[in-house]
Fold this protein.
Amino acid sequence: MGDVLAGIHATWEFEPDSVLIRFTRGNRGTPRLFQALRERRVPLEALESVTLSQGKRGTVVLHAVPRPGADPLMDAAAGQLKPGCDPYRLVLPEECETLAEHYADELRAALPDAGGAPAAAGLVRAPAGPLQFKAYDGKAAFDGEKVSFRWSWTGASSAKWKAGDQSFAVSQLTGVEWRSPEALDGHLRLLPRPAPADAPAPDRARTQADHDPAAVVFGLGYGPVHESLPFAAAVLEAVRAAFPAPVLTTPVVTAPPVPPAAGGGPAAVAERIRHLGELHSAGLVTDEEFRAKKAELLAEL
């Protein structure tokens, strides 16, 4: 192919074995995630499918779908990105539809037949480190070898203060869980690898992120997508490089619904309502979210 297709927020350069995506910087309306990514080279073997569809307000959308395991950014996102922030969508003016259809056909013809198998690791690189961002209850930093959490005295829970600042080597992790800051209970949680002699690891999915020393909590203005998602992707890529098996066989990044905290009864519900009130007072949840979640908790009594 060897041609260039310029869209509204990105340009795709078609090469014999890959697509080079360059994101527009400085244009009004360009998602901040695109600006943070700058450019990405996507080998054709990293792609599962290509579609062309009608977009909004006189546009068409060329959409490439990566294979599971090919791109740590999309694996970390776990389907939580809004369509407008999907880096694999190229939005074009409607008059480019015929040209876009041509390139879509060319890409489809060039895609390997993977038979639904997961892709090899490292096909699409995560953003390079060092990386850092500010969460509501602390600061997170990653230097390529270890992740560090430094708690904030204004936001961290007593459980985190008791545990102290945390540092996790990549070799200590099995993966990372990213829950979008645009959703209630947004957080980034590291999944530590238990030592062989240890008892079974605790079920961290049942521990609230604000009480888990291996997690930082997002909120209004904290841990935005363009900072926290590339961070999660870089950590995931490092873990996969350190442990190519079995980490690559199944995605380790999930975005499960937040389950009830361990332990039931009125006392546990009261504690969760108290914590919800703190988040509401800090502006991390809206009035509507507060009322809905409080009613849900009261229904457990």
Notes: The CA atoms of residues 274 and 294 lie 10 Å apart.
